[in-house]
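seq as requested:
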Amino acid sequence: MEQRIETMNTQSETVDPAIRERVLETLHTLGEDIISYEGPHAGPTIFIVGGTHGNEILGVLLLGLLQRNLENGQLPLKAGKIKLALGNPKAIEVNERVAKGGDDLNRMFTPEVLNSEDNQGFEARRARNIAREIRNSDIVIDLHSTNRPSPAFVCAQDTDLHQSVFKWLPRKAVVFDPNRIVSGGGGSIDEIADDYGKVGICYESGQATDTKNLMPVFRALRGLMIENSMVEGELPEPPPIGADYTVVESIAYDPNNAFVFAEGKEQGFAPVTKGELIGHRGDEAVYSSVDGVILFPKRPEHQRMAGLVCYVASRRK
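struct tokens:
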């Protein structure tokens, strides 16, 4: 019989005080620690990171939910190891993508940062600590959300091993980025996991204030654990398969000319056709080079930090 799993009310589309309180409880409990749960038998090691960006709350809530259920006996681990870590506790504390004066943690996983002690900023030190745990893991799942409305989707490499993991995650689509356009050449948690020969998955759960995917993602991770003989339970059916896309370009940010999206193009997965208007950079009209969708449309306050306003991806045939 399937065990009862602790749940919480997550129907609000905004960060109400009760949800913010739960985020802070998880922050207080985990802090900068990387906690580990190990079953009595050999099995894979799954490393789950949430809160890499501090305003993306679903990953933080999920870590708290996993921790409570692993510790209260509702999710007894019989094999392998589960590791949990908050990505950027300082950013979570202030409910911002990046802590004041800090760097984007998900661009710090580069050889220049990881192989040198010269950079002693908090995010650089945090990246080195997380990278050490990635080296000792088999599967690494980095939980994110978007700052504009968007359906849930996966970013991952196109391999059978990656497919065996992300098939469990509820999603509209899988986005492949073989040229690492989104990260500007590398530096994200899932990419460094792949570079280390692990299975790196970036999961985007939907808009940052939307927590309705909390329990579906929890059940997805439980399905992954059941399939890998880490916990007992009846193996569920994976969710429906969505569309596949490949990132083809980024739309640059110009600090001297504000970018205004065309109507309907400011949401994730807004469809575009080749030659269709994406928006205006000052007086300059910007058009899509392909038939596809808009990915990661940035809010004005995030465009300067990212150096771009959005990406465009084409649908794979």
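The chain has nine helices and 14 strands.
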